[in-house]
Write a structure and sequence with these properties.
- It is a single chain.
- With 268 residues, the protein is an alpha+beta fold.
- It has 2 domains: 16-152, Phosphorylase Kinase, domain 1, CATH 3.30.200.20; 165-267, Transferase(Phosphotransferase), domain 1 (Orthogonal Bundle), CATH 1.10.510.10.
- The protein contains 6 helices and 11 strands.
- The strands form 3 sheets. It has a 7-stranded antiparallel β-sheet. A two-stranded antiparallel sheet has the order 8-11.
- Helix 4 (172-191) packs parallel to helix 6 and helix 5 (228-245) runs antiparallel to helix 6.
- It is globular and about 55 Å long.
- The termini are far apart.
Length: 268
């Protein structure tokens, strides 16, 4: 995992025109900071993180002599460099339109693997759109095109990315507040019928005390997916284990999964 630092002496790529005109756009109401001007230029500033399935780049989108914003460009890997090792369980309850596409993904052909990359990008875009509209603490999904998803950058104006929860050593007071924020977010997802599916301290950012949920392409419908309840229970176990290991003591550990399932059932 590489965390980008603007103090690194890295050459910037030449800017290119914004891809806004060829992309699918995020939900309304759109935040004021989103730049939609087709004269805007996108400039690569470096790599925020690398992963097995996608890399995240820091991009500046700016109108010449006008407004500028920082974006996180998440690019899912090509067929030759990527391993979607958990597709099957998460994909249960989802459908693809073409049987040819389904067979290609199942056989892991080059076409099928490229198709899967795009499917994950659009799945994450769709999940973030729904969660953002529901008021969940997630980055705003600016746009998606092909295998690239462009998101709100969670960090400071100088390009310093917000740390993951796993990197933090919170005080006892902060620990309680962060746990409350985390379980509030999990309840919001459960009320909408979803589990994150891969929630851990590595998929949560902390920006100026606010917890943000990231990495949601595998979001699971608790009822449509036969393993939905199991994914939710695993999310609960991961979160409770992390907070308990850092000294938090609360009866909520024992009841969290049951409470979230009750929230999900009440939705129906």
């Amino acid at each position: 995992m590489h965390q980008f630092d603007l103090t690194d002496d890295q050459p910037f790529d030449e800017p290119a025109y914004s891809s806004w005109d060829i992309a699918q756009h995020g939900p309304d109401p759109r935040p004021d900071w989103v730049i939609t001007d087709l004269n805007a230029l996108d400039t690569e500033l470096g790599v925020l993180k690398t992963g097995k399935e996608a890399d995240v780049h820091l991009v500046s989108r700016a109108v010449p002599n006008g407004p500028e914003c920082l974006l996180a460009a998440k690019r899912y890997r090509g067929a030759e460099n990527r391993l979607f090792h958990r597709d099957a369980g998460y994909q249960e309850g989802r459908r693809t339109r073409k049987s040819r596409d389904t067979r290609a993904m199942a056989k892991r052909t080059a076409y099928g693997r490229d198709l899967a990359a795009g499917q994950w990008a659009y799945a994450e875009f769709d999940a973030l759109s729904r969660l953002w509209q529901a008021g969940a603490p997630v980055p705003y999904p600016v746009q998606v095109s092909g295998t690239e998803l462009m998101l709100e950058f969670i960090g400071d104006a100088d390009g310093a990315a917000a740390p993951r929860l796993a990197q933090r050593r919170p005080s006892p007071v902060e620990l309680i507040d962060l746990f409350t924020q985390c379980t509030d977010a999990m309840r919001l997802l459960a009320r909408a019928g979803y589990a994150h599916g891969d929630l851990s301290a590595y998929n949560l950012l902390v920006h100026h005390g606010r917890l943000m949920v990231i990495d949601v392409p595998q979001i699971v419908d608790i009822f449509a997916n036969p393993q939905g309840a199991s994914f939710l229970e695993r999310d609960c176990t991961n979160i409770c284990t992390w907070f308990a290991a850092r000294g938090l003591q609360t009866d909520e550990f024992e009841h969290l999964f049951g409470d979230l399932m009750a929230e999900a059932v009440a939705r129906w």
